[in-house]
């Protein structure tokens, strides 16, 4: 049975959305096309009608995941305009975000995998990281900080590293201590 162009476009978007979550949960190589398509409620046969390759899907799913993450940062800022950097820190370095394997930060979930992917996937991550840096640079500048670009890079690196470390340890107290230490360092870096 043929699907309409509208349905095909909706199916494609659904596959990208599902893949963005499943890749964050299992990694790019941790899930096959059959399971990705099943997760979207479709058969594997339709995959190549919608995507050139698994890497094509990985690039698009990465872009979607990073856009979603940037939107979450913007939402946190909009909800707390009196302390935009504090809002990003509170959201990003929270135990709740630590536990969000499928919806959390794609840089943390897939960063080492992305480094081994092709240029399309890396370009998606580069664009997402630049968006993070732009948001951080803007909120640092709003708080009177100088050299916001360099500070934004250092702060993002600290936050990504802390969230990554907090996810790879079993001890919940150590995980929390890592996040708390990062919060302190990020605030000090922004104020310096």
Domains (count): 1
Number of helices: 10
CATH fold topology: Tetracycline Repressor, domain 2
Mean pLDDT: 92
Specify the overall morphology. elongated
CATH architecture descriptor name: Orthogonal Bundle
What percentage of amino acids are in beta strands?
under 5%
- Separation of the first and last Cα atoms: 63 Å
User: H/E series, N to C?
Assistant: HHHHHHHHHH
> Low-confidence runs (pLDDT<50, min 5 residues)?
none
The CATH class is Mainly Alpha
Describe the main β-sheet briefly.
Answer: none
Q: Pairing-aware structural class of the strands and helices?
A: mainly alpha
Find the CATH superfamily: Tetracycline Repressor, domain 2
Task: Tell me the radius of gyration.
Answer: 18 Å
The number of strands is: 0
What percent of the residues sit in helical stretches (DSSP H or I)?
Answer: over 70%
Organism: Bradyrhizobium archetypum
Pfam families: TetR_N
Domain HTH tetR-type: 9-69
GO molecular function: DNA binding
